[in-house]
Amino acid sequence: MIVVMKRDSDRAEIDSVIKHIEELGLGAHLIEGEERTVIGVVGRTYPELGSALEVLPGVDAIVPISKPYKLAGREVIPDDTIITVKGVEIGGGRPVVMAGPCSVESEEQLLETARAVRAAGANILRGGAYKPRTSPYQFRGLGEEGLKLLKAASEETGMPIITEVLTPADIDVVCQYADILQIGARNMQNYILLEECGRTNKPVMVKRGLSGQIQEWLLAAEYVMSQGNRRVMLCERGIRTFETATRNTMDVSAIPLLKRLSHLPVIGDPSHGTGHWYLVEPLAAASIAAGADGLIIEVHPNPDHALSDGAQSLTFESFRRMMDKVRAVGDAVGRPLHPAGEAEPLAV
Amino acid sequence: MIVVMKRDSDRAEIDSVIKHIEELGLGAHLIEGEERTVIGVVGRTYPELGSALEVLPGVDAIVPISKPYKLAGREVIPDDTIITVKGVEIGGGRPVVMAGPCSVESEEQLLETARAVRAAGANILRGGAYKPRTSPYQFRGLGEEGLKLLKAASEETGMPIITEVLTPADIDVVCQYADILQIGARNMQNYILLEECGRTNKPVMVKRGLSGQIQEWLLAAEYVMSQGNRRVMLCERGIRTFETATRNTMDVSAIPLLKRLSHLPVIGDPSHGTGHWYLVEPLAAASIAAGADGLIIEVHPNPDHALSDGAQSLTFESFRRMMDKVRAVGDAVGRPLHPAGEAEPLAV
Amino acid sequence: MIVVMKRDSDRAEIDSVIKHIEELGLGAHLIEGEERTVIGVVGRTYPELGSALEVLPGVDAIVPISKPYKLAGREVIPDDTIITVKGVEIGGGRPVVMAGPCSVESEEQLLETARAVRAAGANILRGGAYKPRTSPYQFRGLGEEGLKLLKAASEETGMPIITEVLTPADIDVVCQYADILQIGARNMQNYILLEECGRTNKPVMVKRGLSGQIQEWLLAAEYVMSQGNRRVMLCERGIRTFETATRNTMDVSAIPLLKRLSHLPVIGDPSHGTGHWYLVEPLAAASIAAGADGLIIEVHPNPDHALSDGAQSLTFESFRRMMDKVRAVGDAVGRPLHPAGEAEPLAV
Amino acid sequence: MIVVMKRDSDRAEIDSVIKHIEELGLGAHLIEGEERTVIGVVGRTYPELGSALEVLPGVDAIVPISKPYKLAGREVIPDDTIITVKGVEIGGGRPVVMAGPCSVESEEQLLETARAVRAAGANILRGGAYKPRTSPYQFRGLGEEGLKLLKAASEETGMPIITEVLTPADIDVVCQYADILQIGARNMQNYILLEECGRTNKPVMVKRGLSGQIQEWLLAAEYVMSQGNRRVMLCERGIRTFETATRNTMDVSAIPLLKRLSHLPVIGDPSHGTGHWYLVEPLAAASIAAGADGLIIEVHPNPDHALSDGAQSLTFESFRRMMDKVRAVGDAVGRPLHPAGEAEPLAV
Hints:
The structure is a homotetramer. The first copy, chain A, is α/β, with parallel strands linked by helices.
């Protein structure tokens, strides 16, 4: 942590800051620049210290230096984390594809979709049973009934399941059916939920919040990991910006940046990232080209009758086309897609 | 809901959209413009319908018309909601002041602060017992012990208590001590938490999320209200923008805009809104000038030793100065501050 | 400037950075923290240096310390700048009001408006003759004809004129008529235009760009000042955020923050800041409460027939009401409005 | 344009809006919904009309329907625009690569770079002679001397030149040397500059402004095109968001979205888009995967000694690696890179 003094701060003010630092058992290291003095704080600093030092007379600003995340960072754990779920390896160099409907609506809708995405090469089945909705008057999901349908579709197709958990009270029931827990964007800073997921033995995918900075997002992963669960992956699904032509602005650069800062797998979600089905294929290809460890894609038999997110859902046909392109791009960048076969015939 | 067709959409595409609408029991109303055709959808529309219609051939865009919030809107409930808490009226034309430390740290810190803000004219005591923190390694609050200290300080000073509830499991214990439940910014779209608070008999203050649009924020209030609890107030606490010179960007215009769109009381939080103690007084004054029904302010005996949010906390002295200015501005705009006296000697 | 090394940077990398710094004639000051090493660079640093150092092996990040603006900053020039224009003092503690139509449309429209705002207490006449428009097919202003009408209205009412200059080639003609040059938001980083205005003897009002950070905005002022023209004022007119319920998000906190960082006068523009006439009065009052040195307000005899910005223009009646409120707030915060009278009967 | 009435608007208000519309020679088309009435305006509407109608009593909101750009839109001109510059085809299905230093610093630096990027497969030489800089104290480019160096390097390597023009007064001199005019991000809404470039016979590349919405950006292109110059291309170079871990947020989704909305070529700029050299290769690959018609890349012989943008410049070696990856991705998505050879040995 660096304390930047005001240009006209006097000796007494500087001494007082140093004294404050030393009383906390930390070291104070003075640098007198041409224009102003800065004081390096050496030792175990913490964010609150900066906030407290900022109010001392003569202080202009505080600059944090340490990275607040540890377990999620590559500086502490240099090797890539690989998460294996029923034979599917996430983060091992071969991108995986998670696909399925936004919401589980019926047995027929789910099974039909699961078979179609499986046939096209998907590795993992997605589907929402508990849906967070902006309005209390929207369709909220089938609940445990939806989980059961997911389980049945998983058993038939051999794909493990990823599904969202909305609140701590649902974790137990979701864990009975799901193979991967998904933390939705709105819950990226729901710390209680993160910690509770950190106490399960299920892999957790943490979606980026609409206004989640990279560092906060890694700290969200840290919340899960700090409870002992190291099997965490991150999912870029678009951030909120001034642009209204797309539902969100998908921050493709977050993918390679996270791969540099962290050892955790990174998944791209072009369905939510763009909000328009016709942008899903190009952004899926872009995500793989940028180094994503996987994709999560919304697919629906009839997007024009979907109970949620129809506008961003692919049809079976457009999903197959997307897979062809994504497969070609993966091969081109030396990251061939994870084989669909490896996840197959599971003894459940 | 308006369906905007592409400029080159043909008759068959238009007919197909109309058929789709009519099959749902809704009316389709055609307008053929100079440049393109639009179709008005008449009847009980819902957001999913727009998402589904958007994928039909020939459709360019969907424009929603209805406001998705009802109970929170002034179009449905035209008269101002007034929330009375132990004699303090919120939303009745006389702005209230909520003040206290960011976190409850100790009995002495809390009591000293409570007495000081009370003496300066505050009406309601704030203080965090359960703290949402960006990092798992930060101070997380005293929990129920903190609630007990709040209760004691409330009894001595006669001020009702507002405190944050983080997760559904804490609601019961928080309700035993608190007079107003606060939903923090990170939980604005934690729908389960909102609904659970909607089932209590405590007033609820919903803070705006970092990326919360006005409409989403009113829908968050709607979540609480839809469960039967109509005593909801809104709190503007700054949004996340590209500007880094302040912690957040306080959207002062949200205050009069909400007063126009909604009947709910609106509180300004210049402490979080700006993140710097020296900006709290001017933004508190600005909030009152813009029509706020109240303020919530962080105050600490020694900001340079605070366990959280020191940089944005006022000292007792600067809080008194702020109160003087805010009182003058309230008088100037015909909205004198709520008297401190009215909340006093409570039979608890 | 602080060079933050990676946690695992080795001695050779650290030495290489130090060597690089010293070869430039700068001092390198090492601080070895618990977690990582940082190197303070002492001497006349510059932004390009940071960008260049960032690519050296072992470097994690660069943290600038110096403020890049000098003449615009209060650290260099501590006393408030007061700009006097034909008897009107801007920045002298008494807020001024600039008012008039968005665009000059006709002699009648302008004169009528000028008289009305004068009677209500405005000090300076605003009006656009050269209009920047998002689309090439919109009304672009009357050009020099508009300037002549402004001049005539100014002579009749005694109010000096502020008007926008769009491009260097127009500066000469605008200077023949205008008393204050306005740099519009879209031109905040049009450096050639800023410098050319810096070579005139007219005061310059620099509006904040839609995505202008406080520091960049002060650097825009620095561009003008670096050419010798010290009579610069800043105008907050809203920034672009994710919120679409208002045209822009008016950053009221920028007003007191600029007063702290800079000695230049700060004007609030609630018309553009909000985009809705019904939000102008509350945000005008908020701006004054927050310490603005003045306001700039769009007024039109018939907003429903305005050729530009009708939705955010006040009628004469609503402008009078706004003035009453703003006057009361100015009195309340010890900053009474600048008298209208002092600017009167000018010998031109 | 749709006029949305308030829920409680009465018949007289509705009639008054209709009368206002009809007096302008436009048609008013009433739709009475379950909740509120909307009025479709049929005929040649314009943005000012919406702003004016918004202030009428009983009006809740205005929804524009027409796209304000015409020449830039695919609805008016369905076929892809192909711009041929000295044998290099931009927009013809084979992505081009523009590369070179941020600023022209010296003959040696430029020539060396030009040869290196040419050898690696670049088609067009970039280099700044007039540099827009945030601070007046930064390096501002060599001016016409820089243009002469560009010309010499172009003649030796056979690559046409793209370079930025900052202000109308420079257009003539820049046109003497450059093959493509670049409008920088800060000038996206410098309408005078856009129009002046529209009167030249040089292709123009319009970079997206930091806060430029897709629609505004297409309108910037429209400004150029409205003057008769149809050879316009667009360049995505990152937008400003809340994320500070990257210099900007590169909106990769803008690439396919523009290809859908417009017939103009779209170039990706991962150097400015990310601000970090180590993110350039993945985002270059992502841009091509998403359908970009080309890339513009900053390359420098010694980024650690660059006079500008060192942190985001590739070395010759990293540029070659990037080209290999980009070539592979182009092949994979059926859009092989434009051959370098075709631009060669020019009779100038």
